[in-house]
Amino acid sequence: MKPEAMGLKRIDSTHNPAVKGARGLLRGRRRAGDEFIIEGPHLLEAALDAGADIRNAFVTEEFVTDVRYVNIFTRLKGTGSALFLVPGRIMEAISDVKTPQGVCAVASYSEISTGEVPMGPGALIAVCDGISEPGNLGAIIRAADAFGAGAVVLLPGTCDPFGPKALRATAGSIFNVPVAHAETGSFLLMLRTNGVRILASSSHADKTIAEADFSTPVAIVFGNEAGGVSQDIMEAAETVFRIPILGGAESLNVAASAAICLYEAASRAWRR
Fold it and tell me: Which pairing describes strands 207-208 and 179-181: parallel, antiparallel, or unpaired?
């Protein structure tokens, strides 16, 4: 079947405006709230399930003819987005991975405002204070989704959750848990005004996680990989706690710490 009969327009040049736009997003030329690149069938399906706005989609002939992806391709056509058939070399040019999976898309997905962050009874909020490594941020978002956090709030200095590496590390959870950007001072004030307790994780704390009170509503803050939680938050926190290291490891990375803390908060709520 010809591409045109399948609703596809063929592109054979990297100078095509749609390809150039996708490559620009891939190289990080985006701001919070802008379009972003989704790569691979798993992330694309998660985006479609969440109602993300698919603007352009690029597919290879191998993807279109693979019976495993018939449903995804059908759903893509149903979005009304522009669909382009590209050769492997162009897919590689707009991909952030060594072995592309034959499909990527330019999409838009709305973050929530700070006023929409759930702060009522039972609220659990994961707060990222200057997390700079995309893989860590993506893993924190995935853990927040897994353990029932109502939102992930990104404070200044935190990397882009919709960048290719962070997006992959979320494994689709970016579309399941709301994400918001906030300024530190105003967000701390909002938490206190709404009666949300502030906890912070720090490897230098005297108290251990076992001594921390995770009673909700609570916001747990995870700090920068090198510098930790900022001083303003340390001063505002009701409790600063650490996760004891029992073996020979010098420390846990922030994503592992976040997963432990969010599980601890969720498990204590389950036991109540």
Answer: unpaired
